[in-house]
Request: fold
Amino acid sequence: METNATTEPTQSSPKPRREKRPLNGVDVPTLFATINAVGEQPELAKFQFRASNKWVKGTHSRSRIEGFSGAGGEHAQTGDFVYDADHPPVLCGVGNAPSPVEFLLHAIAGCITAGIGNVASARGIELESVETTVEGDLDVQGLLGLSDDVRNGYQGIRLSYKIKGDADAETLRKVVAQSTARSAVYDVLTNGVPVSIEVDAD
Reply:
């Protein structure tokens, strides 16, 4: 029996595959190639990131993000990434740079936003803008040693996203949700991670 090219597809007809192409500054073909390669060789998934830090003065220190290992080899950074950290004057610092707890806000926002770029691009959604505000609530009684009942770190962190793209609002919300679910920094902050400290004192 002949078929007409205009005939409506049946339920069993395969859905047309969307061409994977670079989008939103994300190399989507490489993204999927990486996912496939790691799926076939799980040992490639093991990464170790490294940094070094030196005290400058007072509460001021300087960190350098070093090379890292992963995907079966060692990798040099693409630049000399150096970041200062300090406390504000009201917390006995000089304010030479953001405080370490403020870097945490940058880290979680940056991690989830990177995921949004990848997830949206993989789904063929062209983004127009992604903006985030991040707030962290911290009671310094704990870190100042004034109360054992108050934790030293954040009591809560809130992120608010404003996202625009060529998809409906519900789809864009799902992109943010998927990025959050796969965020390494979100995972560390919400589930915790073992931290070991060694001291070589002279």
User: Anything to note?
Assistant: Residues 99-191 form a domain with the GMP Synthetase; Chain A, domain 3 fold (CATH 3.30.300.20). The CA atoms of residues 41 and 71 lie 9 Å apart. The beta strands are 51-57, 60-65, 68-70, 73-75, 82-85, 127-137, 156-165.
